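job 3f2a | input accepted
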Amino acid sequence: MSGSDSHPVRRRTFVLTAAAAAGSAALAGPLAPTAAAAAFGYSDDGSNYVVDTGANLVFKVSKTNGDLTSLVYRGTEYQGYDGKNSHIESGLGSSTVTILQSGSTILISVTYGTLKHYYAARSGENNIYLWTNKADASVSATRYIVRVKAGLFLNDEPDSYTYAPTTIEASDVFAKSDGQTRSKHYSKLRVADYHYLGWTTGGVGLWIVRSNHEKASGGPFYRSLLRHQSADGGGLYEILYYGQNQTEEQRFGLQGPYVIAFTDGGAPSSSLFPGTLTTSWADSLGISGYVAAGGRGRVAGVGITGRNTAYPYTVGLANSAAQYWGSARASDGYFSVTGILPGTYTLTVHKGELAVHSTSVTVSAGATTTLNSIAIPSSNDPSNASAIWRINDWNGTPNGFKNADLMTYAHPSDVRAAAWTGNVVIGSGTETSAFPCYLWKDVNSGLLVYFRLTAAQAAAAHTLRIGVTTAYANGRPQVVVNDSWTSAIPSPPTQPSTRSLTNGSYRGNNHTFTYSIPASAWLTDTGQYNVLKIDVVSGSGTTSFLSAGTSIDAIDLLA
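job 3f2a | predicted structure (559 res):
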């Protein structure tokens, strides 16, 4: 649920995105009005370092393992449930924990093997700044979780589960008595869609503001769990590397800062957002792996031609060490991506979520790499190919297909989902909305598409293309035309090996299957419908919605 920052709703739960207004009356951040900082400082209670920010926030960090053991805002304890603290992964174990005050900043450093983690407080701010440096795979550190006491915020969102739900998949997807489904995986959001997330009562807001994700994996369109809440309590996550639906290898190095922010009910200040936040105050703190703004570069493109202006375009940069992205301006395709670590990157232009152009770019510290206008070759966008018919348009997502919107925040069995079966008639005007966004071997394999051809079209061979965005258990399409011609079983493309279609994500590796259909397969009677049958084939998977499946981007028959 999203809402206006200037009109908070009492006792409602919010997941707010980057589009939320920054003009709240209750800001939190470097540009916010600061409270008197007379109490700013830290103490040692024997077990914890106790930090008073001099505003309305007092927090404790364990001297033994670096857990965040207390989070008190305006006298109310927010941290913890089931005896669990807030921490990296499920807790680090015995660690070396030190504290240093440098002027208006307090830094707590946690070392556990090769992993280093940091908490920083600034005088007069209701924020905690966090960095995590995972140097290698010897330490499991894929997330930071802020554990929040039960009952402080309303529990009524797709990523919440209460009301004695029925478990319908694994141990993390549930059904309410009314048939709606809930899971911590159902965030609705891609990484590029949000700057912060959390909850508000209207009088208190508790948020986690994400980092720039330069050391994360999956790019701007990646989806993962972000937040959960149950009868026991809630969790806010910064995902450093998530094993579900991953399309890239894990990156190592310093990730952050990400921020735990309290407000008086409104959104956190935009001054905390990735791309906006400046941390020159941290330059001399000795944070392992820290690279100041002066050690970073920028890439700017004067424009992109060959775009389809009906779609947003995103420019991504990635190599094995880091990833970045930015939006191309709708009017001319201008883009600017800042704060980039020096190195050589693959620059990819995406139409929607479909890669349509790539090149190499080198970034130097303290410099701007300026690119001349990028021209997307017409052949790189499959939508430019002449087609006899096309179902949906090529944009790298299943958006527009039946149930596509619901599937980012619900299980396929959800009562709100339209029937997954049903056939499609070309020329009906409902080709896209009638076609299911996902196909499974055990649910709706054998879907039929009816279409007519002219005499000239029926006299020639044609290429059929089926674009997919991901697959589960190597599910891929095999086609039959008029019960007289059957395609070979295509080889499975590389896709994530974990669940995807049932936990809120269609994001995998976009792939196009092509089928060369001979003229002999078509009906010669132009008044009759040709029938295309699409089966899902695989030797893997189990049953129902966990049988082999795939997510559809577009389907067309080329002229």
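job 3f2a | Residues 186 and 280 are 36 Å apart (CA to CA).
job 3f2a | closed
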